[in-house]
Amino acid sequence: MDTVLTTGQVAAELGTTRSRVHRAVAAGLVRPARTPGGHLRFNADDVRLLERRLGFAPRVAGLRREEVLVFAALLRHPLGLRSARAVARAAGISPTTASRALRRLGRAALVRRSRRRAVLGAGTDVDVWGVNVRDRRLGRLGPVLAGVVFPGPPMGGDGDDRRLPVWLRHLFWNADTRRLDVERDAAYIAGRVLGSEDAQAHAWAAATLPADAFLRAASIRGVQPRRAALARNLAAARH
Which pTM does this prediction carry? Predict the structure, then answer.
């Protein structure tokens, strides 16, 4: 049986807050089960979807979540990033949040603003944000932050990863494809894809949709046995 987690356990596992998890549920990002008392219960597929959208930030003493994301982003850009907006894009947070995090990290001497030579048509010096490589804490923090997963597009936004690819829309001829969300409507999309003979669509679904989407599609009344078997095989491959 799949492990079932409470809201608090999911928040702890992702290094985020209970309220952020609740907002994700309210936005329709995941549809966890509910107990008779109304408490949310998340399975492994729910947690994976939340990690893709909310990211994963390990807890680091003395640092807030957004500071962990910013520091990890700079670690992965050894040549530095030129602006708070560029840092925000790399870390998956807003420019305002990134600016605040950079100021706090700067006061803690973990990051710094420095001049670096860049080629912009001609050689020139530019200011960039980067980690303070002289800080002794870098050796300790580097391995811890290697597992950071940066948040996806904002909840409720129009990130391309949540839209149905244009070349798949012919399978949804009687649906408003502009409103389909790859994560929220995963089971419905899986059912349509499995009902087709499009091998490329099957491959896309196998790489994109969660296991639970295939299992729910396989359980729909009237689905052909071979389609149900394909759905179960694809679900097993996602685990």
Answer: 0.58
